[in-house]
Amino acid sequence: MTTVRVIRAEIRAARLRSRPVQARRERNDKIYMVLLGLLIYGGILVQAVRRMITAPPVGPVVTNLPVAQWLFVGCAVLGLGLLIRALLMFGPVVAGGPFQFWLLSTPLNRRSLLGRRFWWMVVIATIVGGLLGLASSALLRADLAGRLLSTSVGAGLAAGLVAVCVLLQESGKDGNRLSTVLTVVGVLTAGSAVFVTPPAIDLPIMVAAVVIPPIFAVVRAYQVLGRLDRAALAGGADMLTATRVAVSWFDIGLFTGIAAARKWRRIGRVASRPLRGIRYVAMLSADIRRAFRNRAAFYVWAGLLLTPYAADRLIPEVFVATVQLLMCTIAVMPFAAGLRTICRSAPLRRSLGGSDAWLHLTHLVVPSAMAVAWTLLTSPATGFALALVIVPIGAVGFAYRRATQPSFDYSGAAVDTPFGMVQPDFFRQLIRGPLLLLFVAAVQLYL
């Protein structure tokens, strides 16, 4: 029986025979782009790593290192829990249409077919995790040994994350239970670090605990690649395509639409009850019901309550209000789903009737109430009286600006710059909302 290596060599040879000039040109262009990317981005990465190793970045000094260490551990565990669900939405091992039809339907060794994709994911995850660990240790003003240990911890956790997701993909499990356990453990760890002074972490023991198990997990995940069926490999193809298009067009709505459709298909059905009241009262009732059905939004809202208290123990007091503003904005955004739906659908507004201003105000009630409640619960961390007014206004204003943003217009005039053709109007559309948030943060700092 032929091997995967022979098939790949034959495909490359057939491409050269059928289109010799175009194939060589495409190959040379690909080599040129890879070398250019390695020279530019690799150089930037090397300089950044050297800077983080030799000299810490300029910024506020961490006043309590054990708290920062345990917060790092809690956030890492919390991030693992959330990333498990995110990776399982994409696969993580994905096979597109041509690859699935022409190669996976053959009797070739499936592990050899998928091995290259798997190892690339492990290598990329290890590099990204190591860089995040190095950046975190630099922010904590750790010494050289601490930075090396933090880098190894981040790299090991990221590689283990990919391996665990592949094992869950092979078993057909959605990973919700494991994700929930890790998320709860991460929140409890971070919460205990915020409200209780913990002891310092023995870093060598932690490194051994988070580096050795991922090695066995990666080996086990590579062994089960041959048992991945076509349904598991094709499940995340639509999400991957939507993500590529959303990144190319800078429109995250292309991705969130498919993610929301998947979520509601997984729920399957909900209890249907008639709406009470007329017009705006019924719309408000529907928006409240929509918010209560989105349990993940409440979990995010509640988990972010810890961030101002953590900032109060780690950074100077003048920056705590800015952290409160940013976290309140993130906590409120999921509750503006009804506002986004109304603003992006003109037929829906015409069918509901009434003025656009009243429709917008009706669907701003829920985000405003959640912003005010979140600010009141986190106000002891800031001690800033004006934050009770500025933070909700900034968070709700950002949500309103993003929800009422029209579709991106790519037909504006372009300016030739050393970095290529740039559309000034396109950048103006991108900063709609973030510019308002930056202005509110500046007002906080100078009051």
TrEMBL record:
Keywords: Membrane, Transmembrane, Transmembrane helix
InterPro entries, per the entry: DUF6297
Transmembrane segments: 31-50, 70-97, 118-142, 148-168, 180-197, 203-222, 296-312, 318-337, 358-377, 383-400
Protein name: DUF6297 family protein
